[in-house]
C-alpha cells in the first residue's frame, strides 16, 4: 500500500490537467480530493507502529532510532533538492536581469531559516515538510505518554487539529494567523490516531472488511461533497473555474481511518503482487521526487519561453506524473548504487561510502 499512497502524493504535486480548461480543473480537483488520504495514511501508520514497537520495549530508544532515520532522509532530500531549486532561482534572476549575487544570498538566507528548515521543513521545498512533521509528531505523542497520560494522547491532539481545520479549510469561522500544516496541528492528530488504534485494540477482523470497504467508498464521496461545497457554492465560484485544494477536511479523518482499518482487517490484500516489495522504494520516491519534478518543470518553462505551449498539451499532463515517479525511482536507485545512501539502511548522504572505505 505504501507505493500506491506515494503515487497519490506525487499526483498531488504534479497537478495533472490543472489550468488546461474548466474540465481540466474539474479532473484535477477530483484527483487531488481522492489523493488527500495519502499523507494522513502515513502519519496513522507511523503512529500505529510506534505503539506496536514500544509495547514491550523502551519508547525512547525506538523514538531515537526513528529520529535518526527521519533526519537522514530529510538531509538526503535537502542535498538532492537544493541544487535544482537554487539553479532555477539563478536562471530566473538571469533572465529577468536581477543580480545573481543578491538572488544567491536571498536564497541562502531562505534555505537556512531555522524555523522553516528545522520545524516546518519548507525552507527549500514545501514537499519535504512531511519528514520534520512526522518527527515532531512522534515526539509529541511520546511527550504525552512519558508524563503519564497516554489515554489523553488522542483527545489532546484532536483539540489542536480542530484549530488546524479552522485555519486551513474552515476559514470562514475564524482567522488563524499562523501556519497550521505542520506537526502540531496536523501530524500530531493522525499519528496519535494510529497510536490509539493499536493501544485501544480497534483493529477489525476480516469479517468486517466488506463493511469497512463500503465505508471507504462512502467517505470518498463525502470528501468530494465537502470539498466541493467549501470550494465552489460557498465561495460563489462556478465548478471548474479554478482548483480548490485544501490539505484536509473533516471527511479526511473518516476516509483515512476507515482505509487504514480496512487494510488492517485484510493483511494479505495484494500480498501475492509485487506491490509489497515495491513499497521498499516508497520513501525514496517521496524524498527524490521534488528535485526530479523541479527539473521537469524547468524544462517545461524553457519550452514555454520558446513559444512551445507544452503546458496546454494533454500529453504533458498524462506523462508528468509517471515520469516523475520513474525518474525519482531511478535517482534513488542510482544513489544507492553510488553508495550515497543505502536502501533499507542509512540515508545520511555519503555515509555508506565512507563506511565501506573505512572497512577496506
Structural summary, described in words:
By secondary structure, the chain is an all-alpha fold. It has a domain at 37-202. It is built from 15 helices and no strands. α4 (59-96) runs parallel beside α13. The model has no long low-confidence stretch (mean pLDDT 89). Its main location: membrane. Pfam families: Acyl_transf_3 (PF01757). The chain crosses the membrane at residues 38-55, 67-86, 127-145, 152-174, 180-199, 211-230, 242-266, 278-299, 314-335.
Distance between the termini: 39 Å
Number of strands: 0
Amount of helix: 55-70%
Helix vs. strand class: mainly alpha
- Mean residue pLDDT: 89
The best one-word shape is: globular
Write the layout of secondary structure elements.
Layout: H1 2-14, H2 22-35, H3 38-53, H4 59-96, H5 100-111, H6 114-120, H7 130-146, H8 153-168, H9 183-199, H10 209-231, H11 250-265, H12 275-278, H13 282-305, H14 314-337, H15 351-359
Pfam families: Acyl_transf_3
Membrane topology: Multi-pass membrane protein
Organism: Natrinema limicola JCM 13563
Summarize the entry for a quick read:
It is a multi-pass membrane protein. With 360 residues, the chain is mostly helical.
Q: Which key phrases capture this entry?
A:
membrane, transferase, transmembrane helix, mainly alpha, 360 residues, 15 helices
Amino acid at each position: 500500500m505504501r507505493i500506491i499512497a506515494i503515487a497519490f502524493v506525487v499526483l498531488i504535486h504534479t497537478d495533472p490537467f490543472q489550468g488546461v480548461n474548466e474540465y481540466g480543473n474539474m479532473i484535477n480537483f477530483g484527483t487531488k480530493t481522492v489523493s488527500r488520504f495519502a499523507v494522513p495514511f502515513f502519519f496513522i501508520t507511523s503512529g500505529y507502529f510506534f505503539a506496536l514497537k514500544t509495547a514491550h520495549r523502551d519508547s525512547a530508544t525506538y523514538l531515537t532510532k526513528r529520529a535518526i532515520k527521519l533526519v537522514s532522509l530529510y538531509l538526503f532530500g535537502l542535498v538532492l533538492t537544493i541544487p535544482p531549486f537554487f539553479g532555477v532561482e539563478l536562471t530566473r534572476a538571469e533572465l529577468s536581469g536581477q543580480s545573481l549575487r543578491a538572488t544567491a544570498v536571498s536564497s541562502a538566507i531562505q534555505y537556512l531559516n531555522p524555523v522553516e528548515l528545522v520545524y516546518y521543513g519548507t525552507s527549500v521545498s514545501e514537499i519535504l515538510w512531511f519528514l520534520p512533521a512526522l518527527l515532531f509528531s512522534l515526539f509529541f505523542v511520546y511527550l504525552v505518554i512519558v508524563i503519564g497520560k497516554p489515554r489523553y494522547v488522542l483527545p489532546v491532539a484532536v483539540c489542536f487539529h480542530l484549530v488546524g481545520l479552522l485555519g486551513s479549510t474552515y476559514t470562514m469561522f475564524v482567522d488563524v494567523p499562523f501556519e497550521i500544516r505542520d506537526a502540531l496541528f496536523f501530524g500530531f492528530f493522525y499519528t496519535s490516531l494510529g497510536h490509539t488504534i493499536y493501544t485501544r485494540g480497534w483493529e477489525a477482523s476480516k469479517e468486517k472488511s466488506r463493511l469497512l470497504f463500503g465505508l471507504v467508498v462512502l467517505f470518498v464521496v463525502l470528501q468530494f461533497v465537502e470539498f466541493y461545497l467549501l470550494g465552489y457554492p460557498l465561495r460563489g465560484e462556478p465548478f471548474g473555474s479554478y482548483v480548490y485544494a485544501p490539505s484536509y477536511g473533516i471527511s479526511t479523518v473518516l476516509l483515512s481511518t476507515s482505509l487504514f482499518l480496512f487494510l488492517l482487517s485484510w493483511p494479505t490484500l495484494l500480498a501475492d503482487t509485487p506491490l509489497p516489495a515495491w513499497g521498499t522504494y516508497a520513501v525514496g520516491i517521496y524524498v527524490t521526487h521534488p528535485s526530479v519534478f523541479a527539473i521537469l518543470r524547468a524544462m517545461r518553462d524553457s519550452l514555454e519561453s520558446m513559444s512551445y505551449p507544452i503546458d496546454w498539451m494533454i500529453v504533458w499532463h498524462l506523462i508528468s506524473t509517471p515520469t516523475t515517479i520513474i525518474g525519482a525511482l531511478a535517482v534513488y536507485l542510482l544513489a544507492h548504487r553510488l553508495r550515497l545512501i543505502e536502501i533499507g539502511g542509512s540515508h545520511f548522504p555519503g555515509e555508506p561510502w565512507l563506511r565501506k572505505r573505512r572497512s577496506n
